[in-house]
Design goal:
It is a single chain. 48% of the residues lie in helices and 14% in strands. The protein is an alpha+beta fold. A three-stranded antiparallel β-sheet has the order 1-2-3. Strand 2 (33-36) and strand 3 (43-46) form a beta hairpin. The longest helix is centred in the N-terminal third of the chain and has 18 residues, at 4-21. It starts with a helix and ends with a helix.
């Protein structure tokens, strides 16, 4: 049974993915997977590949902070700029 909070979190996560990859997603709970784009195309992100995806997104947006400053570019979108400013 899904509660209102679950639906809210579900929508928030879908919006976050859409922000970064510009694709709609769907969730599968058993097995735990994220389906990216149309379900028929079967672009599936498993738990194992999620960590690779997370690392790639961080590098793309210069969000990794292993002793380095977060880089803000003049052509960053307002959303990306705000995210980077919060991480400083």
């Amino acid at each position: 049974m899904m509660t209102a909070v679950d639906a809210e979190v579900n929508n928030l996560v879908k919006e976050a993915f859409h922000f970064f990859i510009k694709e709609n997603i769907a969730f599968s709970l058993d097995p735990a997977q994220i389906v990216i784009g149309p379900i028929e195309q079967k672009h599936i992100m498993t738990e194992e590949t999620f960590y690779d995806f997370q690392r790639i997104i961080r590098r793309m947006y210069f969000l990794e902070q292993e002793g380095e400053e977060i880089i803000i570019h003049s052509d960053d979108s307002p959303q990306v700029r705000a995210l980077k400013m919060q991480m400083r």
